[in-house]
Specification:
Length: 96
C-alpha cells in the first residue's frame, strides 16, 4: 500500500486537540494497515520521526431517520506519538 492510501484523514476531536501540545496526532487510517505501515506512512508524508503508534478499531454507530435505521461505517483510528526532537506537523499547528 502507498502512504497516501494508508492515511485517510486527520481526526479532529476535543481529545485529539489536547494531544497536539504533547505531539500526539490522531488519524483515520485504512482498516487493513498495521502499526508499522502507519508509522512509515506518517514519517514519509510529514517528514517527522514517530516514536509509537496506537490503533483502535471503531465500530459504526446506529443512526435512525424515522422508522428506518442503519449503521455509520466502521473505521480504524491511529494515535501517533512523535519523538521529542521531531518537528511538529504543520497542519495541526494552525488548529491549536
Amino acid at each position: 500500500m502507498v502512504a497516501e492510501d494508508i492515511i485517510i484523514k486527520p481526526l479532529l476531536t476535543e481529545k485529539g486537540y489536547d494531544g497536539i501540545a504533547a505531539k500526539k496526532y490522531t488519524f483515520v487510517v485504512a482498516k487493513s494497515a498495521n502499526k508499522t505501515q502507519i508509522k512509515l506512512a506518517v514519517e514519509k508524508l510529514f517528514n517527522v520521526s514517530v516514536e509509537s503508534v496506537n490503533t483502535v478499531n471503531c465500530k459504526g454507530k446506529l443512526k435512525r431517520m424515522g422508522r428506518s435505521s442503519g449503521y455509520t461505517p466502521d473505521y480504524k483510528k491511529a494515535i501517533v506519538q512523535l519523538t521529542a526532537d521531531s518537528k511538529a506537523i504543520e497542519y495541526f499547528n494552525s488548529l491549536s
